[in-house]
Hints:
The chain is α/β, with parallel strands linked by helices. The protein is 28% helix and 27% strand.
Amino acid sequence: MPRIIAGKAKGTRLVAPKGLGSRPTSDRMKEALFSILSERVEGSTILDVFSGSGQIALEALSRGAQKAVMIEKDRDAVLAIRQNIEKTRLSEGAVLLPGDYLRHLKALVQEGVRFDLIYVDPPWKLSDEVMHSLDSILPKLLLPNAFLIIETDSKAPLEVMFDTALTRVRGCQYGSGVLSFYQLKTDSK
Length: 189
């Protein structure tokens, strides 16, 4: 069962969505993620795509993020996120966008919204297909010096993704999962 590790809601156990399609991020991987991000979280704006239980976005809010937007399509997961927002008492700054991820991402781009951190954890069996659909959208949602973090199966070939706009700056493996960190390429001119 996922939990909040640090901050205002530390120790709060979260509701996990029912069903076999759910694969919550392990506490070990989440601890590593937030250790790497450290001071970047406080005051930041976060986008959590394929949010599941909402644990990454809620962990960020617990640690002082200003705003966390969660996109999730699965009905059970949406219900779990709503319960978890209530359980953690982190409704201020929490935004849930239920429904199709591409529709919401395109709307955010059109509105000119940008984020300090974007976390994407697609269903592993669909990660290659999903990443190709996001290749041109995600860079448009990043602020300068922002991080895009993607959690995938260790077998996913993410080094070749986002060649035109992003650079992979770090990769970390935890069990069968990998965290890949990307940043916007800087203009060398």
